[in-house]
Amino acid sequence: xxxxxQFCAAAGAVCALFYKITLEPLNGKFxxxxxxxxxxxxxxxxxVDKFDTSIDRIDDKLSGFDVRLARVEESTKSAHHRIDGxxxxxxxxx
Length: 94
What we know:
The chain is mainly α. The model has no long low-confidence stretch (mean pLDDT 87). Helix content is 97%, strand content 0%.
């Protein structure tokens, strides 16, 4: 019985030593990598938010240009109608 107890104690000590030498340092490295990646993901999120804001501003500007372009088109149509009327008057000798 003592031999089994001694074997279990020795096996436990070997496992604890193995953990302290190999796995515990890896945990620290993994934690630092996870912290680094978390910082980078958060920074990426901030950049995406900035792009989203920029896209919204560009969209607003484009909408304004659409309105202005529609006004220019209507003004051009009106001018063409007036010019056509003047051409008819000139041809008719008025």
